[in-house]
């Protein structure tokens, strides 16, 4: 039987596309992060914005408490900004808390405004894992700002102890509000006009799949609303329609037989 040259050609094209994607996405990611680092370090306004911004509006206290039930020290907050959430968990009684951010100015402010026992340091999780390992890593509304989120998730996996917990959340691209906007012809959620720094968009199944692909096992996922107009209806909404997705996962033990 003659070889199917068309089939071989299609396979070759597929492999070339994968290589091209990985190559361009990696360099786009590195260049983007370099630009962000320069922007964040030259523009101290970024750090000041987060210090003055009430993060508990985006991360309601009852949600942070609910997530905290899965925490086991040592804990790392990736994308900690100026350390407000780390201080929140410190005030709840958690010890051995650390926070990292790619912004040098944010880390400086976090150190000045937090107890000395909270360890803040500058680190880019996309470019590599941390030097020390943690039992819990949380990352609140950060993954949507990253081109190659696969590196981000992979390096958080490598930064966890075996059996450690990952807690990650992100805006839901398929929330009831987003769907209503699309029906009305408003696509701002996907064009970046609401927040130009959002470059990746997830719904619940997509985020869970991305996390599983890096070796995690999903423990729990749920959603919550932050806008007052939809909060009264939250109890009637499935998590797939709520504004923010939260996924809790474990770094599983791999047994090679």
Notes on the structure:
The chain has 257 residues and is α/β, with parallel strands linked by helices. The protein has one domain: Rossmann fold (3-Layer(aba) Sandwich). The protein has helices at 5-42, 45-52, 61-68, 84-91, 104-112, 149-159, 176-183, 188-191, 204-213, and strands spanning 75-78, 97-101, 119-122, 134-140, 160-171, 216-224, 244-251. The chain has a seven-stranded mixed beta sheet, with helices on both faces. Helix 4 links the parallel strand 1 (75-78) and strand 2 (97-101). Helix 2 packs across helix 5. The protein is globular and about 50 Å long. The two termini are 39 Å apart. The model is unreliable at 20-43 (pLDDT under 50).
What are the SSEs and their pairings?
Elements: H1 5-42, H2 45-52, H3 61-68, E1 75-78, H4 84-91, E2 97-101, H5 104-112, E3 119-122, E4 134-140, H6 149-159, E5 160-171, H7 176-183, H8 188-191, H9 204-213, E6 216-224, E7 244-251
Parallel strand pairs: 1-2, 1-4, 2-3, 4-5
Antiparallel strand pairs: 5-7, 6-7
Helix pairs in contact: 2-5
């Amino acid at each position: 039987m003659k070889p199917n040259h068309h089939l071989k050609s299609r396979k070759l094209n597929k492999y070339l596309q994968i290589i091209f994607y990985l190559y361009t996405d990696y360099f786009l990611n590195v260049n983007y992060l370099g630009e962000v680092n320069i922007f964040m370090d030259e523009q101290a306004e970024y750090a000041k914005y987060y210090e003055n911004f009430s993060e508990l509006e985006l991360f309601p206290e009852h949600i942070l408490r609910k997530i905290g039930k899965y925490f086991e020290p040592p804990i790392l907050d990736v994308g900690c900004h100026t350390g407000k959430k780390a201080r929140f968990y410190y005030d709840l009684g958690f010890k051995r808390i650390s926070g990292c951010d790619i912004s040098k100015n944010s880390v400086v402010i976090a150190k000045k405004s937090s107890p000395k026992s909270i360890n803040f340091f500058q680190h880019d999780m996309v470019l590599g894992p941390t030097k020390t390992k943690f039992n819990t890593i949380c990352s609140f509304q950060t993954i949507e700002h990253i081109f190659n989120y696969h590196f981000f998730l992979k390096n958080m996996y490598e930064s966890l102890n075996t059996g450690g917990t990952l807690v990650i959340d992100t805006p839901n691209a398929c929330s009831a509000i987003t769907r209503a906007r699309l029906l009305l012809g408003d696509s701002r959620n996907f064009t970046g006009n609401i927040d130009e720094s959002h470059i990746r968009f997830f719904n619940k199944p997509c985020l869970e799949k991305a996390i599983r692909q890096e070796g995690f096992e999903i423990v729990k996922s749920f959603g919550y609303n932050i806008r007052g107009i939809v909060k009264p209806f939250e109890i009637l909404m499935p998590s797939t329609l709520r504004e923010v997705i939260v996924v809790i996962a474990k770094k599983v033990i791999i047994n090679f037989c």
